[in-house]
Design a protein that fits this description.
Blueprint (H helix, E strand, L loop, with lengths): L1 E3 L1 H5 L4 E6 L5 E4 L2 E8 L2 E8 L3 E15 L6 E17 L2 E3 L9 E2 L2 E3 H12 L38 H9 L4
Antiparallel strand pairs: 1-10, 2-5, 3-4, 4-6, 5-6, 6-7, 7-8, 9-10
Pfam families: YceD
InterPro entries: YceD
Protein name: DUF177 domain-containing protein
Length: 174
């Protein structure tokens, strides 16, 4: 969803609130696609600070379905999105520093979906677990160990130590 913000950029000390609903239905992160189940409508506040900078602010929450990192069960994750950006203005135009990446502003159009997406990337959790003591899946048969134990032998022997294991098994006292 894009908005024309030329009136805010070109008028000193102008403030404008834009009610926003996003058109995003999923988010792509690290090669995966995750469905957005809920996003709260919110407002973006644009403020021209004495023709020197454009202040962009707003906050909302959104719910995303992400698989558990251990057992792959679906987990509902709530992300708090807090937008607080400052963009420099010069002669009624947006100015970005050379090292600053602009993905959400083009001339005088604000791309709200891209702005939200950038904030999702920053706030994305590093590890998602269905519960703190998630047991994961069996590496042998793939059974979800939170649901039931499969009985597989999951002992992993270091191949460099396998000969020692053979010696212990050969001379084992009965």
């Amino acid at each position: 969803m894009k908005f024309d913000i030329l009136d805010v950029i070109s008028t000193a000390d102008k403030k404008r609130e834009i009610p926003v609903t996003t058109e995003m239905s999923e988010v792509s992160v690290s090669g995966g696609r995750f469905p957005i189940t809920d996003i709260k409508p919110f407002s973006i506040c644009l403020t021209n600070d004495n023709n020197k900078q454009l202040l962009i602010s707003g906050d909302t929450t959104l719910d995303v379905v992400v698989p558990c990192d251990r057992c792959l069960s679906d987990v509902d994750v709530t992300l708090r999105i807090a937008i607080d950006r400052k963009v420099m203005l010069a002669d009624g135009h947006v100015q970005f520093a050379e090292d600053e990446e602009n993905t959400f502003l083009e001339e005088h159009e604000l791309d709200v979906d891209r702005l939200i997406y950038d904030e999702i990337l920053v706030n994305w959790p590093t590890k998602v677990l269905c519960k703190d003591d998630c047991k994961g899946i069996c590496p042998v048969c793939g059974q979800n160990l939170n649901q039931q134990d499969c009985g597989c032998d999951r002992q992993v022997i270091d191949p460099r130590m396998a000969k020692f294991q053979d010696i212990f098994n050969e001379f084992k006292e009965v």
